[in-house]
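Practice set, problem 2.
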Amino acid sequence: MAIVCIPNCAFLSETSRQIAIYKALVASGMPAVLATHGGPYDFVFEQEGVPCTRLDPPMTNAEAERYLAAVFNPLLRFQDPVALREHVVNEIRFFRESGAGAVVSGFTLSAALSARAAGVPLVVTHTGSFVPIVVERGLFRWSDAFDNLLLDIVPRGWLDAMIGWMGDPPYVGSRVLNTVAKQLDIAPVLGVADVLLGDLTLVTDVPEILGISEEDMEAWRPSRRNIRPTARMNYAGPIYAELFGEVPEDVREFLAAPDKPRVYVALASTEASRIARVCSTLASMDVRAVVATTIHEGPFADAANKPASGQVPLIVSTSKTTPSLAETPPASSIVQ
């Protein structure tokens, strides 16, 4: 039986992470295959020299942009139900034809349906440390996740209490999944957490940073009805990507000076306003910081309280999620 890695190529991070997992499986002697519906970062497979099966229907750039927009807006659906149904049907067929013993998902949400329909366990890596135990221990607040003028008028404490009472934020995307699940006679998803979690969720963090022991992470069990009872979690540690392109020369020169601590920040799946706040904070610190972005407009405004030297120690790298621009290393600019 093979382990099927199915990255969502709308996301560079997920594409690179699935390639890293695939390479590790092959190196360990495990039978593994890569399959994808494509997207802006589909070209990375060829650059990395790894075989990948393209599944129908292919994801267009417009569909990829919709997917990305839905990450930030709970009122948008990730996919059109007709396209989602086709994805699920073709994934089920591929899993059965390839003899899948497990499916590893890179935010390919259709896999939440196709894996359970094919009767194989689902492993996910796309959650990072955004997992239920973190919410349950008060290390994350739902109110921090939304920059929305409508929600901003609701007191943060009320918003957290309301979502806690509901068990999940009301994402339209989960309703679309259940529309297709009903059509195909597949067990429905129970909520957002059930969509995001797999039978096994690999937490790409470490106990020293997250503050939750390895024993506690492995001992966690679902206590709410909106999460599948089979869900389990384990630490996997960071999964680093070795990506295309060279580090820009101005970045090398900027980081070469040994006089200050160096900070690297990559908050790709977040809103531009949050990136701007991070840049402002870093600009007030006496460090040399590199902020990597993907879908965000830049450069971002610097802070008013610049260091005495007059130069804000901050580099912002930007790239668009289109094949023509994604094929080249991101352009960079030093914010002065």
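Problem 2, part (b): a different protein.
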Amino acid sequence: MRRSLSFALFLLLIGIFSCKKEESLENSKIGTSSGSLQANATNECLPKTLQGAYVSGVSLTNTNFIEVEIDVDAVGSYFITTDTINGYYFSGSGEFSNTGINTVRLTGKGKPLASGNDFFTVSFDATSCNISVAVLPATAGGPAVFTLQTSGTSCMDAAVIGTYTKGVVLNSTNKVNIKVNVTTVGSYSIATAATNGMTFSASGSFTTTGVQTVALTGAGTPVNNGAISVPLTVGGTTCSFTVNVNSTPTNPPPTATYVWKFTSGTRVTQGEVDGDGILEVVSAGAFTFTTIVFFGITAAVDTSIVIAIADLNNVVNANETYVSTSTTSNSAGIEIDYGGVTFFADPQTPTASVTVKVTSHNTATKVIAGTFSGTLKDQTGTQTLTITNGEFNFHYE
């Protein structure tokens, strides 16, 4: 397969995707999404983010919300709500444009009628999970009074949770548990200053006094690797905790050069990338989306491959999935010259279907890695190439 012919697949994907995107947005013909809520072993919602102060007799505003994660199987519209307890509930609606893990914000509505702990059930599709909300008494609606628990200059018993890697955006799994001593119940807001590109924060309400643990959620992107000391100040107390940031990963690990490989039957085919891949931001009327493509070839020049992805949200993140049959959300196209026959999987080949998943994307080093698998068809549609265990790891310009 000549590189000039491979590039035609890239252009085809851009053309189809841009047209279909405009049609989808103009006609708003999007179906109902499906998927599953993410929860831990005790069925508590993940990431279990709760924001805002909840006070008996005080109406909720858009600062009162919870965030949950959903593993989306099929894109489309959604409406998610909790049950109504103690005079209030949480709900949210919108459209999923990407499969895989999505975070959804559910805004609080109504007014808590009494203080205490309320336990809500969040429902989506055929799944549900639980989240608890502590409501303060009306007489304790002001800000809480509390201090950090320290051990010398360190935050006492601070527990850093999650994996931290240079150049990789933090998510809901990145948390730091700290201890505070509450002397007056009420609402609270805790946040670190930006350190090495990262911040950690939490807000909510303390309903009891004494020593308690607060989970601060991370945000941002680590700039440098190493043991990073993060200072935290609350009132007149200051302490710090250490976040160990790993060096830049490559997944799958590269050999001497960036690689690709896949399995067909009992045969494993692998090779090198033919030069750098290409990232391009494409404009389609008032809209833009991002495409990335790479070209690969074996040392014996008997097999070659091109993979192109198009991202509807204009940002290619780790754990995003791209499907060759999609024309209204993240899309992909693959062309493989295998045994003298050229096989395709793209939006114009509906009898073929390949899924590409990005496993890591370092925008600083411009290295992207992922997996792919599925079935491809030749031009006549009579021959099929089934591939499994596909992997790629390449640098783009």
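Answer key, part (b): The radius of gyration is 25 Å. The CA atoms of residues 41 and 129 lie 11 Å apart.
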